[in-house]
Design a protein that fits this description.
Helix content: 25-40%
Structural class: alpha+beta
Number of helices: 10
CATH class of the largest domain: Alpha Beta
Strand content: 25-35%
Oligomer: single chain
Distance between the termini: 64 Å
Radius of gyration: 22 Å
Largest sheet: 6 strands, mixed
Length: 317
């Protein structure tokens, strides 16, 4: 088994073109990666720039961060050739690792745009090193910048940041400092390809919380009315719970609910609504045992949303 720690640099434009419904708001212009063995020792490196095919002008923020100009990329290989080189270099059954959750999704979006299959036929397990660092060193409170993590661990900064290979290199250095088995059990899942049917839905137990990734539905209403999506059973003992707060949406981007298990206490339920590349809907739902104080805050938030909605209705009359 090999760990592939990768980082991408990408450019963007005002409008995202699409092929077969797949939009590419971010065109990858550099792939950098480090290969680690099972002991998380570096064994190989990958670094290639990419000749742009979609956006012909460098976005000012991209150029400012990565210090690249379009003329420096015009003689490089195009994405299809680079991705073939990269996947060949990765070898069979790699475990991908990134700093943050975005890179694998954008990599697959670029791949599909050019006619390649996604990396997996369902949600792809990977290590989000940013999350692992937060769990091991910051009590999961914050998602910190890579350079901040490097400084906190007193890792030598021997090459500049903000290029694909250098950021992959430092991410690998941080990954090597993750020691606890409990932390390493926290795989993340990229959902560029959601579960294709009910039989392939994922229900994942991480000790202190539970995650469920649903199949896709044609409409948001159908998804939210699904029995499994709405389920509020205790994820530890699977017993029925008392629903204390019906699902409400604090921001419009997700739904929050509160239930209580007689044995395990208060359970926060969060339903995130996601849209797949083919326009269908699916959910990533989490359940977590929480203290009474946090449960009381959810009750207050629900009442605040309800009062706001009531005022809006009264104003329309």
């Amino acid at each position: 088994m090999n760990f592939i720690v990768l980082d991408l640099e990408w450019n963007q434009g005002a409008q995202a073109p699409s092929v077969s419904g797949t939009q590419v708001p971010f065109e990858i212009i550099e792939i950098g990666a480090v290969k680690l063995n099972e002991d998380r020792v570096m064994t190989s490196e990958f670094s290639e720039l990419i000749k742009p095919q979609i956006y012909k002008t460098m976005h000012f923020m991209t150029g400012k961060i990565v210090h690249l100009k379009m003329k420096e990329l015009k003689n490089e290989l195009p994405f299809p050739e680079v991705i073939r080189n990269f996947l060949d270099w990765c070898g069979p059954d790699p475990v991908f690792c990134t700093w943050g959750p975005l890179d694998l999704y954008e990599l697959q979006r670029n791949m599909v745009y050019y006619g390649f299959d996604p990396l997996n036929d369902g949600p792809l397990a990977f290590y989000d090193i940013q999350k692992l660092f937060a769990l091991e060193y910051d009590d999961n409170h914050r998602r910190l910048a890579l350079e901040t993590a490097v400084d906190m661990l007193s890792i030598e900064k021997d090459i500049p940041f903000h290029r694909a290979f250098s950021d992959a290199y430092y991410t690998a250095k941080v990954f090597a400092r993750i020691k606890r088995d409990e932390t390493l059990r926290h795989y993340s899942y990229d959902v560029f390809t959601p579960p294709r049917d009910k039989a392939h839905e994922l229900s994942l137990f991480f000790g202190n919380y539970d995650k469920y990734i649903s199949r896709t539905f044609a409409t948001k209403e159908a998804m939210l009315n699904d029995k499994t999506v709405r389920d509020s059973n205790c994820y530890i003992c699977n017993c029925k719970t008392k629903k204390l707060v019906k699902y409400f949406s604090p921001t419009g981007k997700y739904f929050l609910g509160l239930a209580k298990c007689d044995t395990h206490g208060f359970i926060k339920i969060k339903i995130r609504i996601r849209k797949s590349e083919d326009g269908n809907y699916f959910t990533v739902k989490t359940k977590k045992i929480i203290p009474k104080e946090e449960a009381e805050e959810i009750v207050k938030r629900a009442l605040k949303v309800k009062n706001t909605e009531s005022k809006i209705k009264e104003g329309k009359k």
